[in-house]
Amino acid sequence: MSITRERVQMRPSEADVSSEVLSSLINLAGRQRMLSQRIVLKAMQAFQQFDGALAVARDTLRTFADSHATLVQGRDGLPGLFSPALHDAFHGRDNVAQKIADFIALASMALEAIERSSPRADDALTALIETVDPLLTHLHGVTAVYEQESRRIARAQKKGQQELIDRIKAIAKEAHIVSFNGQIVASRANVTGREFAVVAGVMTSITRELEAVVGAFVAKTSAG
């Protein structure tokens, strides 16, 4: 099984990463732990010549490798390593990405040896078994980083929404004052003033509509 080289991509804006996307990433990262264990279990069963175990092991390994590529590179609407913390989780001090690649290569070699009934199959399987527990620790750490980033981004997005609400409220307040003053001036003027009063009235309507939109947005974000 060939491992696609991880591509260097521009990170998307964190503001574009929705809660749904973050949830998908957390689930995908968490699933990797289960898949790695399943690969080893099915490899052991294949070595013991359980029917169908080898095919299941290969299919699970393929899923594991594809999921890893999706997490790192991004695919199907998922952004890849969109933050420095995630990049460090995979490529930092522990170099988890390389450990995952080594596990995939080792699993592929073990399954091939088992399929060929190679004398080296026993040693390859033993090596694979020895790697799974340390790998599980790293995969757990990666999942924890996704969860931390999800909480951090949720807080940042909520703060940004509140700042936007405050700005809109300030604009609406200023517009309301301008329209009110315009109506007062228009009431003291001539025909031109009456025309201005129409404009001021329209501006008042827009202000009220803006205030209603802000209220609805506040209610929706508070409920969420």
Provide the descriptors you would attach to this structure in a database record.
Four Helix Bundle (Hemerythrin (Met), subunit A); 6 helices; 2 domains; 224 residues; mainly alpha
Give me the strand/helix succession. Answer: HHHHHH
CATH architecture of the largest domain: Up-down Bundle
- CATH topology call of the largest domain: Four Helix Bundle (Hemerythrin (Met), subunit A)
Structural category: mainly alpha
- Cα-based radius of gyration, to the nearest Å: 29 Å
> How many strands?
0
Number of domains: 2
Largest sheet, strands/sense/barrel? none
Straight-line distance between termini: 44 Å
Which word captures the global form? rod-shaped
Helix content: over 70%
What is the name of the CATH class of the largest domain?
A: Mainly Alpha
Beta-strand residue fraction: under 5%
User: Which segments are poorly predicted (pLDDT under 50) over 5 or more consecutive residues?
Assistant: 1-10
Structure, briefly:
By secondary structure, this protein is mostly helical.
Walk me through what this model shows.
By secondary structure, this protein is mostly helical. The chain folds into 2 domains: 138 residues, Up-down Bundle (Four Helix Bundle (Hemerythrin (Met), subunit A)), CATH 1.20.120; 64 residues. 79% of the residues lie in helices and 0% in strands. The protein contains 6 helices and no strands. α2 runs antiparallel to α4 and α4 crosses α5. The protein is rod-shaped and about 105 Å long. 22% of the residues are buried. It is a multi-pass membrane protein. Keywords: Membrane, Transmembrane, Transmembrane helix. It comes from Paraburkholderia lacunae. InterPro entries: NarX-like_N. It holds the Pfam family PilJ.
